[in-house]
């Protein structure tokens, strides 16, 4: 397909006039201006060291330049930011993910267990090998198409990779449509569309009497999610899905998902626990997810067992579930033996899919331990985060049969989790936190003066009990709730509220592509880390926020006045526009709130 077509020519005729009108309006809105000024990008020349010499190369009249220099810069101690502003990484680093850098991982291969795909896990370089420059957007980057149109269409230039379209186009993952990528809603095992597949799964779980919600499914973990179309089509059922996939041969699948406005993260099932709490999901889904569940004594299935709630489902759509050639029958027999040892029950097997249920049956597990069919885990402290924890070749046996009975969403949003009482957070504190964030969201939206279409992907970088995300629930946003691993495990309570999130250590870069989020919220995050200059200084956190926020994205920082003042002073060097405001904190005292917006800039 050649370039130069009118915008409407990029659409399939079935898309309809409403989608075309919506996109045309959005394209026009890119240049309407915002509370922080014009949406037109500002530029720097790759071959110039100052703004005056680069001004002649500007492709658009009336745009401005900035003084930041393009220079590949690594982190040094002590940290120093040039007077001209943070250096800008060369454009070849526009997809830089520090802890998933192929060049660095290649140096580690001799000491990694590649047979278990340890190479796909997080491997963060030491500070001196991390880039200390602003990650630029790719050439011809455009402000993202807004939700809900973005579910089906994104700008081609924003994720300019053709491999998935070439190898998965026949399965309707993604197709090229002139200036756009089009996502028809297909997948490897649902090339005719996710809605039919989702309904089929509900029928299989309920003996043809209902859907996934009536089967008790409200939170799903999608393993090897591709471009996350499965998750996208669960949203109408108000089913929240944590989608993940590694950064592997299916290049940029998570980047596609986030560009579409669908919650997803880079992760791999290999040698360590996933960064989610125990008993967080009613369903774990694998559709050709490229995971060898039968290998290594089923250790990866035991991780699924950890993550599933009692009476949760494991959905497996892959050749061993239906094919009788090659080694598939042997693999299937191993899966049956492993799941039987964990006391899972196979409840359905048809149309290329098998479904097990994790029954709450401690007596069965103890019997299988006695028969040496499976190992029992030692008691674990659930108050500690699942972060860089080695996988255990065992199952946890709970003698408590009265696990908390959670209501469906949206009632689940108000649940006070029993896990909070175990770590000293009372119901009164929980309720107060919920009310507080309801008020703060109203204040934020008023101060930001933002259209609801400008925000879709949100991250709460220090989520506590998830009150911030609950306050946003009625808006067309999704929220990634991050609980720092150096804090108590409140993420279990966040999942018990029907929300999603992950553990993370903000002394390291997060497993996300650049330009993934429209809004970052950091409530007393900087003061928690105490400006540890060795690995996580204030400047390091600002740089990581800049990497994952989209151009024109919003940044909200609540913290001590000395911290917000320092960020205000540094913000121009990071090409942020910021304002300081005063709002009441939980103790009814005034505290400083910084609201910033990342400029839309580009290298020419």
TrEMBL record:
<keyword id="KW-0489">Methyltransferase</keyword>
<comment type="similarity">
    <text>Belongs to the methyltransferase superfamily.</text>
</comment>
<keyword id="KW-1133">Transmembrane helix</keyword>
<keyword id="KW-0735">Signal-anchor</keyword>
<dbReference type="GO" id="GO:0005768">
    <property type="term" value="C:endosome"/>
</dbReference>
<protein>
    <recommendedName>
        <fullName>Methyltransferase</fullName>
        <ecNumber>2.1.1.-</ecNumber>
    </recommendedName>
</protein>
<dbReference type="GO" id="GO:0016020">
    <property type="term" value="C:membrane"/>
</dbReference>
<keyword id="KW-0808">Transferase</keyword>
<dbReference type="GO" id="GO:0008168">
    <property type="term" value="F:methyltransferase activity"/>
</dbReference>
<keyword id="KW-0325">Glycoprotein</keyword>
<dbReference type="Pfam" id="PF03141">
    <property type="entry name" value="Methyltransf_29"/>
</dbReference>
<feature type="transmembrane region" description="Helical">
    <location>
        <begin position="21"/>
        <end position="44"/>
    </location>
</feature>
<dbReference type="GO" id="GO:0032259">
    <property type="term" value="P:methylation"/>
</dbReference>
<dbReference type="InterPro" id="IPR029063">
    <property type="entry name" value="SAM-dependent_MTases_sf"/>
</dbReference>
<dbReference type="InterPro" id="IPR004159">
    <property type="entry name" value="Put_SAM_MeTrfase"/>
</dbReference>
<dbReference type="GO" id="GO:0005802">
    <property type="term" value="C:trans-Golgi network"/>
</dbReference>
<keyword id="KW-0472">Membrane</keyword>
<keyword id="KW-0812">Transmembrane</keyword>
């Amino acid at each position: 397909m050649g370039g130069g077509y009118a915008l409407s020519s990029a659409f399939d005729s079935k898309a309809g006039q409403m989608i075309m009108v919506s996109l045309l309006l959005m394209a026009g809105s890119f240049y309407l201006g915002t509370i922080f000024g014009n949406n037109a990008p500002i530029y720097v020349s790759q071959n110039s060291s100052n703004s005056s010499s680069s001004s002649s190369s500007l492709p658009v009249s009336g745009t401005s330049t900035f003084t930041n220099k393009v220079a590949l810069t690594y982190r040094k101690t002590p940290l120093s930011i040039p007077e001209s502003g943070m250096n800008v990484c060369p454009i070849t680093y526009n997809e830089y993910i520090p802890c998933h850098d192929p060049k660095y991982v290649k140096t580690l291969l001799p000491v990694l267990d590649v047979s278990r795909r340890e190479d796909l896990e997080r491997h963060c370089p030491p500070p001196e090998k991390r880039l200390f420059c602003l990650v630029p957007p790719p050439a011809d980057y455009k402000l993202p198409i807004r939700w809900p149109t973005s579910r089906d269409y994104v700008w081609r230039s924003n994720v300019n990779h053709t491999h998935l379209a070439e190898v998965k186009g026949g399965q309707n993952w993604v197709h090229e449509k002139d200036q756009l990528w089009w996502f028809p809603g297909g997948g490897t095992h649902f090339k005719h569309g996710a809605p039919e597949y989702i309904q089929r799964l509900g029928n299989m779980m309920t003996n043809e009497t209902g859907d996934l919600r009536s089967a008790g499914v409200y939170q799903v973990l999608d393993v090897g999610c591709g471009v996350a179309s499965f998750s996208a089509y669960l949203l109408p059922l108000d089913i929240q899905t944590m989608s993940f996939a590694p950064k592997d041969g299916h290049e940029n699948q998570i980047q596609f998902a986030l560009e579409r406005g669908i919650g997803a993260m880079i992760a791999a099932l290999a040698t360590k626990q996933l960064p989610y709490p125990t008993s967080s999901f009613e369903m774990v889904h694998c559709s050709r997810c490229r995971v060898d569940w039968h290998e290594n004594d089923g250790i990866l299935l035991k991780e699924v067992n950890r993550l599933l709630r009692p009476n949760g489902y494991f959905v497996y759509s892959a050749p061993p579930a239906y094919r009788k050639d090659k080694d598939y029958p042997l693999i299937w027999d191993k899966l049956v033996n492993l799941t039987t040892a964990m006391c899972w029950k196979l409840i359905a097997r048809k149309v290329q899919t098998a479904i097990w249920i994790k029954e709450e049956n401690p007596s069965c597990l103890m019997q299988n331990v006695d028969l040496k069919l499976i190992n029992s885990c030692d008691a674990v402290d659930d108050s500690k985060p699942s972060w860089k924890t080695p996988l255990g070749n065992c199952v946890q046996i709970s003698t408590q049969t009265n696990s908390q009975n959670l209501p469906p969403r949206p009632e689940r949003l108000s649940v006070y989790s029993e896990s909070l009482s175990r770590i000293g957070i009372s119901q009164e504190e929980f309720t107060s936190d919920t009310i507080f964030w309801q008020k703060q969201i109203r204040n934020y939206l008023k101060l930001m003066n933002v259209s609801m279409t400008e925000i879709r992907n949100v991250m709460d970088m220090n989520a506590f009990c998830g009150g911030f995300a609950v306050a946003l629930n009625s808006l067309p946003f999704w929220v990634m709730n991050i609980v720092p691993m150096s804090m108590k495990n409140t993420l279990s309570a966040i999942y018990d509220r029907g929300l999603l999130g992950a553990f993370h250590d903000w002394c390291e870069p997060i497993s996300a592509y650049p330009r993934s989020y429209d809004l970052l919220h950091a409530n007393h995050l900087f003061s928690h880390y105490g400006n540890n200059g060795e690995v996580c200084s204030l400047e390091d956190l600002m740089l990581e926020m800049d990497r994952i926020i989209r151009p024109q994205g919003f940044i909200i920082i609540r913290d001590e006045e000395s911290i917000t003042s320092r960020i205000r002073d540094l913000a121009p060097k990071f090409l942020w526009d910021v304002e300081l405001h005063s709002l009441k904190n939980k103790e009814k005292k005034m505290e400083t709130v910084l609201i910033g917006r990342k400029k839309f800039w580009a290298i020419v």
